[in-house]
Amino acid sequence: MMVLGRSIIQFSWIVEDLEKAAQRWHATCGVGPFLVNRHIAITDPRHRGRPQVTDFSTAIAQAGLVQIELVQQHDDSPSAYRDTVPAGREALHHIAVLTEDFDATVACYAAKGYEVASDGIFGAVRFCYIDTSAALGHMVEVLEDKPMIQRFFGAIRRAAEKWDGNSETLLRELG
């Protein structure tokens, strides 16, 4: 599946509880293990162009060629997550693509009339959520393709390849 010439690498849902959602994915589709990153620190976080810190955690698993990401927002701050999925609800929030030319990809969406809902830097990787919800019913996350994100995604793939399917090892905390 391609978005602006880029493969979709991830489907992401906003959930109320990472552990319960991971268990549902495992019980229903056999997906796992989920690598959990709690209370993620973002550098220069912005929502709709204004500085905005949001407290959230993620759990990500590889499912064939794509990742399943679960996102839990812990606070009531304005965010790209709450722009489309109100507190107390669970739903698909975004698909994600990797790009070598972050600025050109974001400019391409802007030229099509789509706004950046949220952006920042995760480690050394720039990311943003493009608000395509009016057209698609969800957002598109654009991730800058850098060695750090490739190492992180490689760890997720390797965990899935080595996993024995045991539900007791379904969630693995990241440092």
Can you walk through the features of this model?
The chain has a single domain, classed as 2,3-Dihydroxybiphenyl 1,2-Dioxygenase, domain 1. With 175 residues, it is of the alpha+beta class. It has 5 helices and 12 strands. Strands 1, 2, 3, 4, 5, 6, 7, 8, 9, 10, 11 and 12 form a 12-stranded mixed β-sheet that branches. A hairpin with a 2-residue loop joins strand 9 and strand 10. Helix content is 27%, strand content 39%.
Structure described in brief:
With 175 residues, the protein is α+β, with helices and mostly antiparallel strands.
The end-to-end distance, rounded to whole angstroms, is: 32 Å
Structural domain count: 1
CATH class: Alpha Beta
Order of helices and strands, N to C? EEHEEEEEHEHEEHEHE
Structural class: alpha+beta
Second CATH tier, the architecture: Roll
What is the percentage of strand-forming residues? 35-45%
Q: State the share of residues found in helices, binned by percent.
A: 25-40%
Largest beta-sheet details: 12 strands, mixed
Using DSSP, what is the number of strands? Answer: 12
Instruction: Spell out the CATH superfamily.
Output: 2,3-Dihydroxybiphenyl 1,2-Dioxygenase, domain 1
> What is the CA-atom radius of gyration, in angstroms?
15 Å
* Chain-averaged pLDDT: 94
Poorly predicted residue ranges: none
Shape summary: globular
Q: Count every helix, treating DSSP H or I runs of 4 or more residues as helices.
A: 5
Produce the secondary structure layout:
Layout lengths: L1 E2 L2 E9 L3 H12 L4 E4 L5 E5 L2 E2 L4 E8 L2 E8 L6 H5 L6 E9 L2 H10 L4 E7 L2 E6 L2 H4 L2 E6 L2 H16 L8 E3 L2
